Amino acid sequence: MNLQLNRQTFGDPADKGKVLSREEAASLLKEWVPNERLRLHMEQVGLLMRKWAEEKEQLGPEDQWRWEMAGLLHDADWDQWPEEHCRRIIAELEARHIDPEIIRAIASHGPAHFGVEPETKMDKMLYAFDELSGLVHAYSLMRPGGYDGMELKGVTKRLKEKTFAAGVNREDITDACSRAGITQQELIEFILRHQGK
Ligand SMILES: [Fe+2]
Ligand SMILES: [Fe+2]
Questions:
Q1: Amino acid 104: pLDDT
Q2: What is the rounded CA–CA span in Å between residue 190 and residue 179?
Q3: CB of 184 within 8 A of CB of 174?
Q4: Span 90-127, pLDDT tens digits
Q5: Which of 59, 98, 102, 157 is the 20 to 30 Å CA partner of 24?
Q6: Rounded distance from Cα 41 to ligand 2 centre (Å)
Q7: What span, in angstroms and rounded, lies between the C-alpha atoms of 186 and 89?
């Protein structure tokens, strides 16, 4: 499946700062993503993005929502139109005059697939959270206590087991952490602090 986007610029600079309301984003997800597991994945990545913007980047509520929106919508077209991932959500957000930074972050969440390099901090963190958040969630589903008592050690062990959540690309995780300038350990600890709470 060729998902290359074949372009490097997204949205209109004049739309800077324009966002969907929380209600609009929720109704788009409801309409586009019948698969509840995928919706949960996007909500989890959205939450991590918001928390990172708040805690690590010390951004205010408006920017926090821009970061969250990128996470919340990054796979919105994957459920129904996988062969058009993420072309379709980009087109939708461009038509709705959404902030180009949000669209660009979505376009660069899989550089190997889409051919767009993560450049901004928002781009890089979305790329970094995407796979690792999924692995941590898969781990929670096989633990009797779910997220309760989950530790760095256990996640690191699962990460090394190539057969566990085999769809999660370990190389992408390593690549994403080095691009974002954070350690894998730091990223896992951040996810454990926020996800599943
Ligand atoms: Fe994706
Ligand atoms: Fe994803």
A1: 98
A2: 17
A3: yes
A4: 999 999 999 999 999 999 999 999 999 999 999 999 99
A5: 59
A6: 7
A7: 30
